Each structure stands twice: as C-alpha cells, then as structure tokens.
Amino acid sequence: MNEKYLTEEQILQMREEYLLPCVMKYFSKPLHIVRGEMQYVYDVDGKRYLDAFSAVVTISVGYCHPDVIKKTIEQNQKLQHITTLYLTESVVKYAKKLHKKAPPSLKRCFFTNSGTEANEMAAMLAKNYTKSQEFIALQHSFHGRTLMSMSFTGQSIWRHSLPYVFGVTQAPAAYCYRCPFKTTYPRCGCACAEYIEDIIKYNTSGRIAGFIHEPIHGFGGVIEPPKEYFKIAYDIIKKYGGINISDEVQTGFGRTGRKFFGIENWGVVPDIITMAKGMGNGIPIGGVIASDEVAEAIRGKIHFSTYGGNPVSMVQGLEVINVIERYKYQENIERLGKFLKSQFKRLMDKHPIIGDVRGFGFMLGIELVKNRKTKEPAAEELLFVMELCKDRGLFIGKGAMAGNVIRIKPPFCITKQDAEFIVNTLDETLKIAEKKYNIK
Ligand code: PMP
Predict the structure, then answer these.
(1) Does the pTM exceed 0.90?
(2) Cβ contact 345:354 at 8 Å
C-alpha cells in the first residue's frame, strides 16, 4: 500500500461525512483509482483494469491521451479562463470543427459545462423557436439532473424531485425485447413510433416545442430503435410544429462507429444535437449545435455561461476530434464493435442468462435474465458478474431501470486483445453466475 494516499476506509468515511448521501458507488468494496492511461486505469495498489465502461461513457479517446494532454497543458499555462465576453480563438475554431463533423444543416453552437445544461439549452431554443412549451420524451431515457432534464428523463429512479417541469409527456421507447405493445418487429409496423401521434393528439395541447431522445438509450439499457423509427417519429413531430433534438451525450463523437453522431445511423437530421461526455474525454464540457433557423430565434436575448467556451475545454475538445481523426478511431470502433457484438451473440448461444444483445459500435448492451421465457431481470446476478469482472481486471457498466443490462462502452483505443479479454472474461464470469444462481 502506497503511504501517500488515504486508505479506502478513510475516503469512504469522508464521503459519508462530507458528501451528500445520494452519491453512488460501484462494488461491495469500492476501488480507489489513482491513475489512467488510455483504455486502462490503475488502483492504489497498482493493479490494472481495462475500463470497458469508459468512466460512464466519457473517456472517448483514452485516459490522459498524450496528444490531448499536451495541448491542454499548453493552454492551461497560457490562459485558463476569460469567458466569451472577450475574444478567443479556441471557441470559434472548435465550433467550426463541430459544424464540419455534424450534418451540414447544423451549424451554431453554444457551450456548457455538462450534458444536463446542453439539454436545458436545447429545450430553451426549442421553446424560443416554436413559441410552444410542450415536449415529447421517451420512457427509459436519461437526460440529466436539472428539473427540466429530470422531467425529460423516463425512469422513476431518476425522477424523484417533484414537481416536474410541466408539459413533458413520455412516449414508449422502441424497446423491442420488451415491446410496450406486446408485439414483435417488423410485424408491429413500428407501432411505438406511430403512437407518438396519438400522444400529441391526446396528451398535449396539440402544439409541441419538440421531441428529445437518445439515438440509443444509455442509462436506459442500450435500447436501439428499429431502422425506420426515427423517420416516422421525426415526421410526426414536424407535422405538429415541433423540432427534433438528438441527445448525443453518449452516442456522439464516433462511439457508434462510422457515423460521427449516433442519429446519422438512422438517416434523419435533427434540428439540434446536444453533446457532452466523450466530447471532452474527461473534461467538464457540453454543448448544443443547432440549425441556423433555430439559432436565429434566440437573437436579441442574452444568455451566458461562465465556463461555457472556456479556452481549456475548447482546446481539449478540438484535440479530441483531431485525435479521433488522426488515429482513425472510428474505423477501430466499427471493426471491433462488430467483433464484440458477434462474440456476445455467440455467448448468448451458450449462456441462458443472456436474454438479449443490443447496440452497435462501442455502444453495446447485454441484457441478463433469470429465465428466458419469463424475462425476469437478473439484477443481483449482474452485480455479481461486475464484481467477478473487477477481480479479473475488467470494468463493465450497468444500466436499465432494473439494473440488469451489462453496458460495454469502451474507450475508442482498445485493441483486438482487449476485446478478446472482454469476451473471455464475460464468458467465464457469466458461467460462474449461472452456476451460483442456478440459471439453466
Ligand atoms: N444525456 C445523456 C444521454 C446522459 O447519459 C447524461 C449523463 N449520463 C446526460 C444527458 C447528463 O449529462 P451530465 O452528467 O454531463 O450532466
């Protein structure tokens, strides 16, 4: 044990004493992490872990990526902060770069400190543009921690601070494995997307500001809508005067593979994209990119974020994109994402605990069930698997309301060997869990 660090017990005791008691932690004996290097982190005893959950889908190009850190240190030494009241280069260079990476109609940025604020900003833009107040969001979604974004969020565990912001109605998610209409795709004709029209007609005033959604649900358990879903949904929203907002906090910056933003995989173009997490590879940053038309609706009004557009975050953000391009990380995601998914499907053939395998790129989910017929969620079993993986040097993530979906969302820089390690470790640990919980 390295003497210069607090012990785990001291940190736990201080967390209990000085942090709000809503702060969560992973593992029965939480780990003290002191260092990160690309896809790996190290605990206080020097043990290495492959982080297949990327610090909750935030480390995109790799912990302390040397190219990124170099630029960030240089900027820290020059100018850490000044605000957008003064002219700086980094904010406009970064905004221009984002425009180049986004669908061409999306052009105008506003930068924030987090994904939550980005979603707040998008809601405000939508209200200004449409002069309407009501929103459609999705069940199983997660959009943040403010009252507006908690109101968007479609999971009761994250919606505990009544009263919500009025005027948000949740539509059923395109959760084919547990279809809300108890039917099957494609026989269903994408009924969940069509149903959005009924919701607008019967649950709202009929005039909506917008629809906010994740392309693939993150916290909600990697729910991946069918290929026609967003076309149907977006057209309905437009018909009722709303705009479409794609929350790319988890799916952006190439995480889904070939496309830079997740929604591009569905061949539709939103009016606003919100982003954070992988955007900064660990730095507190978020933002929106909107069409000219939507952006113009806020002209004449003042809005300001103290840290939004901060030179250090802008420089780090820009270098993250440069690194994604320089090292062709999207190709790596595409290739290894396919490999991982095919291997998870193979695991499904031999492990009855696996009910479903979903997602693509490095946005993958494995839903665990106690019984394939009843689909009863296997949440305790997942916690057990997480512990076993951790003991073997692998971090995996957990998602879904019931906490029964393994989330595999590694940093973009993992290698084939890392991917094989993930598969083999899951294979071994799922087998142990099936034996312990008698899952056949
Ligand atoms: N949207 C999505 C899809 C998220 O996953 C998150 C955070 N997990 C947020 C918004 C909120 O982002 P932040 O924690 O940066 O406020």
Answers:
(1) yes
(2) no
